[in-house]
Amino acid sequence: MNQEVEFIKLSPTQNMTILVKSHHFNGDYQQIALRMMAYDHVYAEQVGFIKEPKDVNADGHLQMAGNEFCGNACMSLAAFIAHQKGIEENGISHLSIEASGAEELIACQVRKVEGDYKCRIAMPLPKRIEPRVIEYENTYVHAYSVEYEDFLHIVLEVDQVNEEVKTAAEALARSLERSFPETTLIGVLLYEKVRSYLAPLIYIPKLNSMVWERGCGSGTASIGAYLAFLSKQRISAEIKQPGGGIRVFGEYENGFVRHLQIEGTVRIVAQGKAFVTV
After folding, report:
1. Structural domains present in the chain
2. Pfam families given for it (predicted)?
């Protein structure tokens, strides 16, 4: 059956994001998302669906196709809501977003700058950060796991991101699915500490989607949590990525990361109607 899908396409640090504005059955979300993400369709790295919020204090509700949490998609929705409300140049809007994969409302600050939207949002805090020795394909990898309620990130420090390391990261992401069968998202974060550079691999088992993202908001937050955990102090750092930089702010207190925020720029690039067969 053909469905007309109204959408808006945004670029948060070139992590191309489609937000679906029209209403569809939840059971069709995965197929709609996979089709729209395809190279021969609208083409993006991820798809979220805008729904009516349940909380009266929320300005919007974001439901990702794989039920995962996505920081860049939250920034995208905040930018879109601010745009709809008519935010003026250099104006600031404070919003709260309900989001899949997050138990609490996500606080967002949006400022319009030269037609783009500078967004800062509070991020979910990890439940634990710990060193791990991971075995896969007869190889042992020393890494840190950053575990959240519904998703997992693995931080791997590397000297240089290259194709060999990326191929190994893809195999690692798939192998972790067996150890964490309930997780909605597995991220393998290749981090070059010397130049503060991140290559984020995001694997969503439910969609069988594996993407080397050009910019990852939740991955940036996990790098910030990792750095705060190692240094045992407050951190502020710009994490360079293929699509540009995202800044992260983190605070450490009494053995835990207590506060995480990311800040990036969102650009609205297109809106229209797509046609999807489900």
Report:
1. 2-122+266-277 (3.10.310.10), 128-262 (3.10.310.10)
2. CntK_N
